[in-house]
Queue: 2 jobs
Job 1
Amino acid sequence: MSDLLKVTNLSVHFPVRTRGVWRKTVGRLVAVDNVSFSIARGETLGLVGESGSGKTTLGLAILRGTQPTSGQVELTAATGTIDVTKLDKQALRDARQHFQMIFQDPYSSLNARMTVRDIIAEPLIARRTQKLDRKAIDQRVIEIAEQCGLNREQLRRYPHAFSGGQRQRIAIARALVLHPDLVVCDEPTSSLDVSIQAQILNLLAELQESLGLTYLFIAHDLAAVAYVCDRVAVMYLGQIVEIGATRDVYFTPRHPYTEALMSSVPEPDPSAPLQPMLLQGERPDPANPPSGCRFRTRCRYATELCATTPPVPVEIEPNHFAACHYAKELSLKGALALRNAGQDKVAE
Ligand code: SF4
């Protein structure tokens, strides 16, 4: 499979300013640090890590929702390859049809004053190229709404008349109405009831199959990521510390931070006690990260080398990379709960 998205050495820094009138810049917060990865066409890459690890900032930087400080984001659409980081305002607006985002909160991401029809039609109307007349717009809105499980009658209503799951269906229809190639899903199920989460995950999987979509799936929920993602990237303090096939990362992690994350995956048996591996210490300040390996202040395997030398990602087995000096030597525990539950729970 060819790559749809190629991210190379992407960094996002934010200035740290003093309070008060003059607001002097006194430092910089490195939210995303020199991140590189690619996503093949039709693939789903999961992005996991604790809050503040830089997942959402990375997703936004790929779509230019926030301005990257350096690096490249190349998207290969049917019309050719574009470097998203170099587009001017007008070109970026035109390119947005190729990449869209589904947000976490379907309550705040929909305009309460617009009907569902108008919400879904808005990207079509705002598009500068390939203008459609009203009849063609309505046809396209009905088509994508039905694919997302909404009926024609619902298109006349306002968002407040819908449940959380239905609102997320509206948000998905809006994101897909322009036939995008890449969709960044930022915690698309985390604000929904558990029973509805599975419906939305299944809908995303069906739409990927029928429309040939490529997903970057940002989530906290490791079980959901295991269910929908072909590969997983683990982020810690702005860096990708491990990336590989879902099965490899979950069952045979090679980075100590991934091991700690996987220990928090719940057992399928509700009576089985959860034994998460508690990380020592606080998460370091991203404006002042530790020297050497950024994870060293919380890592149970840290040595003196870790304090002086930043580890670089190494390929442990085909397409499985980890940034740890001891990735080849450590014997780490994976997500046993998922393995016990049956391997069909983890995407091939
Ligand atoms: Fe832990 Fe050292 Fe590996 Fe960092 S490089 S994860 S501190 S063992």
Note: The chain has two domains: 3-229, 235-347.
Job 2
Amino acid sequence: MNAAARPLTVPDLAAAREAGRRLVMLTAYDAGFARACDAGGIDLVLVGDSLGMVVQGHASTLPVTVDDMVYHTRCVARGLRRALLVADLPFQADATPERALDAATRLLQAGAGMAKLEGAGPKLEAIRFLAEREIPVCAHLGLTPQSVLRMGGFKVQGREEAAAAALRADALAVAEAGASLLVLEGVPSALARAITAASPVPTIGIGAGPDCDGQVLVLHDFLGLDSGHRRPKFVKDFLAGGGSVAGAVEAYVAAVRDGSFPDAAHSYE
Ligand code: KIV
């Protein structure tokens, strides 16, 4: 598809996978960076609840509210013409299907084209509820930052066989419930490869190795900014090699598309 042609749609995601064209996703929280993403050919822009850490300076994503997400989604939407805008349901906004519908409706009315939520199990009901009500859903499995208290930190998930099997089953379950896209975060490359091979919907990796259908990075990591937190292994500073924000976006898009990012140095065994 011609990158300048028209706004990307949800069916285009499956078509890209079918065509073997990797999807490139980056987070943004304001109109200026959204414009830079769009101009550089980023396919999906995520207003992540990571904004709680990289914009608001919290130690986790838990303090982020639906109002925060709506505000930043509106800002980003004003900067986009082509990229599909995905916005996170923040902590507990998806605790019940009804709450998820209220929050996701606000995000779509603010300009998002898809709502993302973390987890499977009790979240399957919310995924199904949204999907059946014309709200495209992106699921998020593996290292789910909203589970930081239970996980005891931001830790790679699915290393033991039982945990890997549970993740493989969850990936099928979220797609069956109606998710159109699946983010896999912080899982060993071999597990992400197996999940991607079995998944009915495209997968987007972050710390999940090179074999997902696309990749996502958090903007501040991609720019090499000190977030005040330990730098995960998968993070790459594209600004260092790109020379400018536009150059960094161009380098990132090219590296994801040709499969050179992430390499083994930016992946987990
Ligand atoms: O909030 C976020 O930025 C995310 C990405 C890490 C995928 O969920």
Note: The longest helix spans residues 161-177.
